[in-house]
Amino acid sequence: MSTVAVLVESRDGSVTQPTFEALTLARTLGTPVAVWIGAAPAPAEAARLGIHGAEEVRVVDAGDAARLPAAAAAALGAATADADVVLVISTFVNKEIVTRLALATGAGVVVDASDAEMVDGHVETLQTVFAATWNVRTRIATDKAIVGIRPNTTQASPGETPGAATLVEVAADLPETRELVTGVEPVPAPDGVPLAEAPVVVSGGRGTNGDYTLVRELAELLGGAVGASRDATDEGWISHEHMVGQTGTTVTPALYVACGISGAVHHRGGMQASGTIVAVNIDPDAPIFEIADFGVVGDLGDVIPQAIARIKEVRGS
Ligand SMILES: Cc1cc2nc3c(=O)[nH]c(=O)nc-3n(C[C@H](O)[C@H](O)[C@H](O)COP(=O)(O)OP(=O)(O)OC[C@H]3O[C@@H](n4cnc5c(N)ncnc54)[C@H](O)[C@@H]3O)c2cc1C
């Protein structure tokens, strides 16, 4: 049975949802072990990793130095020397870390994958590329495979039998780096679910005319994050962290709701791989309808309140 190492992502000491998704995927590839870079996790967090199948929780406490990708790659390498597959969440920084790890180990690497499976003893991945216009299947030919997996592409679920989640301390030899971390300060996190990880994204564009009240209300009701088009952020209606698209954040939620967004190619490039796309637009010829699974031609000021009321009615709240 292959050993599949999953690099844990945590926020304020809590394991994030994409990690559980990666562990769920890891169970289909072999025996999952979790790799925690930093001071040892709280027992409850280690237990959650076990519930999702982690047989071991390998802790590499390399201090703040491991915030540098070169050092993090060495730390991850030390904890995954025996692993046949290394799975990470496909974040910006993780892509740099795994590229370095691939160079150091000779492993094949694929990032931004939406799925992975074992075929004839090799990992094969699926990616949606070029603004979600092509699906690509890639076989990793090397014995060791590294895969960066996008959030929200696997439904997280507990394992049928929990993993032991045995804590194992791993020592890492960190390389001399040309940069030194001289200070670390947490940035206050924005309210709600981070855009890139959110299972639901409700986005507003120029059609909101700058009023995000309804978009925010629908996002909150659906437990999602608020997104925006670049025109909306350029207008200063909402901050740039909310921008979805080629120059903004790439999102792959299970549900993407585009409100008053035309569906320009630059916007589509960052959301086209979403599970279900819903569009609300007054213009029946808006390009967003070409990729929408469900489209409503109408004024968002009429349509969204009706959607909110109906959702509340169905939920009985
Ligand atoms: C190099 C480059 C990179 C870019 N990167 C990005 C990017 O990352 N992300 C991004 O989003 N854009 C990006 N853009 C900009 C992109 O090309 C579009 O200009 C932008 O996405 C349009 O935003 P929009 O859909 O909000 O506005 P518009 O294109 O003006 O569309 C507004 C839509 O709202 C509809 N509407 C109006 N009123 C209502 C109403 N009351 N109810 C319902 N619908 C209504 C209209 O029918 C229209 O379809 C980039 C552009 C360039 C050149």
Keywords:
Rossmann fold, 9-stranded mixed β-sheet, 16 strands, elongated, alpha/beta, 5-stranded parallel β-sheet, about 325 residues, 9 helices, binds flavin-adenine dinucleotide, about 25% strand
Please characterize this protein's 3D structure.
The strands form three sheets. The protein has a nine-stranded mixed β-sheet. A hairpin with a 4-residue loop joins strand 8 (122-129) and strand 9 (134-139). Helix 3 packs across helix 4. The chain is an alpha/beta fold and 317 residues long. The protein has helices at 17-29, 43-51, 69-79, 92-105, 213-221, 230-234, 265-268, 288-291, 300-315, and strands at residues 3-7, 10-11, 14-15, 31-37, 56-60, 85-89, 108-119, 122-129, 134-139, 145-149, 166-169, 200-204, 225-228, 255-259, 276-281, 294-297. The longest helix has 16 residues, at 300-315. The chain folds into two domains: 3-169, Rossmann fold (3-Layer(aba) Sandwich), CATH 3.40.50.620; 195-315, TPP-binding domain (Rossmann fold, 3-Layer(aba) Sandwich). The mean pLDDT is 94. Bound molecules: flavin-adenine dinucleotide. Flavin-adenine dinucleotide is lined by residues 205-207, 229-232, 243, 245-248, 260-262, 264, 266-267, 270, 280-283, 286, 299-301. Flavin-adenine dinucleotide (FAD) is lined by residues 205-207, 229-232, 243, 245-248, 260-262, 264, 266-267, 270, 280-283, 286, 299-301.
